[in-house]
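User: quick one, fold this
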Amino acid sequence: MSRVADFEHVVLGPLTGRPESEWQRAPAGKWTPAQIVEHLAISLERSARGFEKATGGQHRRPPTPLERVACWLVFGLGWTPPGVQAARGTTPAARVEAADAERHFRDGLARWAHLESRPIGGDSGTFVYHPRLGDLDLEEWLRFHQWHCRHHAKQIRRRLAE
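Assistant:
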């Protein structure tokens, strides 16, 4: 069974059966649940596309000191400092419809489920660049997406409780 299958329940579970109005509710200056789901979908899609295009046999670039710290925070502590902005290109539109965000997210999960079944990863020399964490292999990207989905799922649950 695909590990990304859990991401669907974690992210979309709290939104199941909720009206569009709840997908669109957020405090001023914060993302709505629909925007959060879209942001996650963009991240899944972009990283999957990187692996789909990769040929392997690359050398991992040494991480910068900032990338080392970021990896330690995310992978070691499961935390990111408040105020860290979304990576360029992963910011959702000002208005995202619930159905569009959900479809896009499920499409991203399907791409990752397919990638999991392919023989690529850390041993094959296939790395895809993450703008904050540096070069990551398939396993590291999966760990990132697991953390990322859980991080934003907490935000979704807070929005729904407000």
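User: anything notable?
Assistant: The chain has a mean pLDDT of 92.
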